[in-house]
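User: two proteins, same treatment. go.

Assistant:
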Amino acid sequence: MWVARPHLQVLYTGLSSFIGPRIELLQTDRTKRVQSAANLSFGFNLAQTGLKLLGALLTGSVSLLSEALHSVSDVISSFVSLVSVRAAAAPPDDEHPYGHGKIDTLAGLSEAIILFIFALYTAVMAIIHFFEKPEIGKLDWGIVIVTACASIGFLVMRHVAKVGSETESFALKSNAQHIQVDIITTIGVIAALVVTKLTNWPYADPLFALLLSVWLGYSSVKMIHSAFDQVIDSHIDQEELELIQGILANEPELISYHKLRTRHSGEQHFVEMHIVVPRIWTVVQAHDLADRIEKRIETELAPCICTIHVDPDSDIPGNDTGE
């Protein structure tokens, strides 16, 4: 029979009390970093939207107009991120015992839907300009404006993407994808304006605008799919699942586990499972093992809530598969 080692339990309890407050501190730091990145993104998108709308008015370019509308969606996206990251950071309450993390996911979903709507509008405008072929002027101003926006946008995108990845904020990751798409499409607008300036070919501008709408539509559908995965409680990433399995494999007293279920709520992880222990164990022994596994998983996947149910081995036949 397995007997708990008192000195190891004291050591583990001491480590837990040492690490726990620091996890809370890291979560507070996470909120500040996410909010700071959201503020930066919002400020940049607001500024570049104004510049691109000015460039569209000066040049009459439909590709630049569509890019300006795309930036309008980025402003909305940044504003939604700014609001949602603050709301999602609110602690659990009586009405929302699992926290408010889904606000972050819903924000990303709304941003993707807005982007899809603008993609449709861009396609319609491009088709109209294929037939109308309006005159485009002051192309130098347009080229300077979009080049400046693309250069600054690259720096902002890298920072927002880094913070979103490190904090697992879906809204920030979605926002960074918005900016990345914006940079790519802005480069395309530069190319369209340069071609128009050099060749006077009337179809260069609406042709690129149409291609831009296809790209925006594709990107928005990918983001919608990713958001729905979290809304309908898909399991956490495969790497994180393997991490859990590794923790369980390193517990020699554990006979097996089953009914492993995981999900996301914003950056929060939720893990549930049943573990099988020797039938002759006492309640205290079974509880100590379950508690140790819960704390290890919660530490490795922080922020995380892990809940474990204990089963005696003779009641659950065929559980040596770990499934």
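Protein 2:
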Amino acid sequence: MTDEARAEDPGMARHAGPFPWSVRFWLFLAAFALYAGVGHKPGVNEVSRIGLTWGIVEWHSFTIDPVANETVDRSYCNGHYYSDKAPGVSFLAIPAFAVYRWVEPAVSWHIARLVDAASGEQGRLALEGLLRLVRVWVPRALTVSLAAAFFAVFMAEFLRRHCADMRMAGLLALGWAAGTMAYPYATVFYGHMVAAVALFVVFARMTRVAASGAETARRLDLFLDGLLLGVAVVTEFPTGLIATILGGYFLLGLGRAVQSRRLAWREVGVRFALFVGGGILPAIPLCFYNAVCFGHPLRLGYETLASPAFQARMREGFFGITAPQPDAMWGMTFGTYRGMFPVSPFLMLSLPALALVLWRVARRRESWASPCAVAALIVAVYFVFNAGYAFWFGGSAMGPRHFVPALPFLVFLMSCLSRRWWPVLAVTVAVSVAFMVVFSLTDPQVPERVLVPLWQYSLPQLQQGRTSVTVFHFLGLAGFVPVILYLLAPLTLMGIALWQLDRSPSPCRR
């Protein structure tokens, strides 16, 4: 929320103070229990990504030949199959899977006790399926889910500093953590959430620097910002669009510091070199990976796709990106197939928020370089990209999964709304959370053929008791008991966090 907007509404409260560490701790545990507490049968997208991690740790190779028949998301080059995905999240999961390999015998023994492997072929297949599920679940929980849980706390604090009042901040934080695609995609081994976290953390840090002046940024922070942007791009290639905008935001801050003579040219050069150097660092393993697998440091897996059908679609335009299509625009927003608004209705409030930001900029009540204006630009650019992508629907998925890296910017836009929107926000967030719980309990990798995922697939699956595996299933519990305990765990931890927050000193008001 801008200071000017706060001045216009004397009832607004400024909550700039950070959470006490006890509150952060319990909020993190609540988010981690929500994201890491459920596991799904590995889908073709996950197998492509985790297959690379397995290959590096177990087979000391970049190939995914042993699991190539389990995925269609693969490249073929020089007689071997490789993942066709950006390798960032696969690289990040290497330490987690290496550690899991040490304890895998004990885990396998415990799972074998739960499954009657002696009951014939059905028991043997159930055991193999659970073991395979856990081999994806653990590295995912310690990378994607862990990053998403830390970010849930980060986002809550960031919104607390920018929203009209505490209720708006709390609802938006809850909406982000449990009422958007962030929740289900924090329970699968995809790269979207890792990229979203890296990008928005850089954005948040840049907004603070912009408010205090570029000269206040520490050199190490600039290097880390560049590093996070590089990690985002190596994890999801299209996020280079967002990284470019944030890079421009950084250069704008440097330019203003030079213009006002707060920074010498030499210091500007040092800061620029640190920022760019951090961004280049993650590209080094990517270029090495590309050279080994595809014969050239700049050649990507998407250029050697194994599927002729995928090859044909990716040849359209630039790697499958053409002009934005109206049906894709509708499908990503209001469509029942992959639309984000029908399954996260509170996100519709981003439309009046976006209109408000544009009106303020047009009336010069807000700078075109303000945080909300930059967030609006990121959302618009990434939406246009997604609407022009041949695979905008994301295959087996729920919602427009390729838009996830821009999702926190969309939620942040709603921080400019006044507290008069609180009743509408409360109702729509509650509905959104309920829908995301259904998706996350029944696997967000909804088959591509299902036209209305929530009503034709996920809800029927839940009604029939065909849920994904939760951590409480490994206690030998059956029926809906593990599911209920899975949902009670984060609710209990959230209650403790709110109790701790109530005991902490109240934030200052003005």
